[in-house]
């Protein structure tokens, strides 16, 4: 092992700032090869990203329609992919009682599983805010007071 690599690993072992060491390592590689030598293997071509966005938008709109069928109010579908790295779309909806939150969540989960083959993770306890996480689409169902308090639309104000 090269002595500079040994010193890098020893600095990391005693709690040095890992990001500084990683930056230094990449800077050294760039100086040596004069090009980027590291690429993530999980990146998709731009056309595949657009296809994924379109598919997930169709899924999000279908879920929003289900929420509307169960009389949810002020339903918003937000494209949050640019500012949020872990999902593409938020659906934000208002329900007016906990039973209505449960009904909306149940209908959304049923449609997602039956027609789209997707399952969500969610908190099954009765609550004033239910979140259904389908990966690329996340559904937030609020009672009016919680929606006003958390104000996700303003927090993610640069979402489309």
TrEMBL record:
<dbReference type="GO" id="GO:0090071">
    <property type="term" value="P:negative regulation of ribosome biogenesis"/>
</dbReference>
<protein>
    <recommendedName>
        <fullName>Protein Iojap, chloroplastic</fullName>
    </recommendedName>
</protein>
<dbReference type="GO" id="GO:0043023">
    <property type="term" value="F:ribosomal large subunit binding"/>
</dbReference>
<dbReference type="InterPro" id="IPR004394">
    <property type="entry name" value="Iojap/RsfS/C7orf30"/>
</dbReference>
<dbReference type="Pfam" id="PF02410">
    <property type="entry name" value="RsfS"/>
</dbReference>
<comment type="subunit">
    <text>Interacts with chloroplast ribosomal protein uL14c (rpl14).</text>
</comment>
<keyword id="KW-0809">Transit peptide</keyword>
<keyword id="KW-0150">Chloroplast</keyword>
<comment type="similarity">
    <text>Belongs to the Iojap/RsfS family.</text>
</comment>
<dbReference type="GO" id="GO:0009507">
    <property type="term" value="C:chloroplast"/>
</dbReference>
<keyword id="KW-0934">Plastid</keyword>
<dbReference type="InterPro" id="IPR043519">
    <property type="entry name" value="NT_sf"/>
</dbReference>
<dbReference type="GO" id="GO:0017148">
    <property type="term" value="P:negative regulation of translation"/>
</dbReference>
